[in-house]
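Example 3.2
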Amino acid sequence: MINTSEAAETMSICGVMAQVLPEKMQEVRARMLDEIAGLEVHGVGENGKMVITVESNNYSETGKRISDLQKIKGVLSASMIYQHTETLDDE
């Protein structure tokens, strides 16, 4: 088991699919980008689907950011589709 207090710095990236009320899309997108650090919107469908990545320096923080995303008014669902974590080198 890894002692997290001694673990090397990591990077966590999650791919997320969000379903948003189509009529709230612009408002929700603006709030996401303003309120959630490390969030990037990659695609938006007319049906309210959004393809998003969330990045942070650890898995727990990434999970918190996805949870915060789910709490934004107008977001019907947000599901993690992919998750990748790697240790960052000093270089």
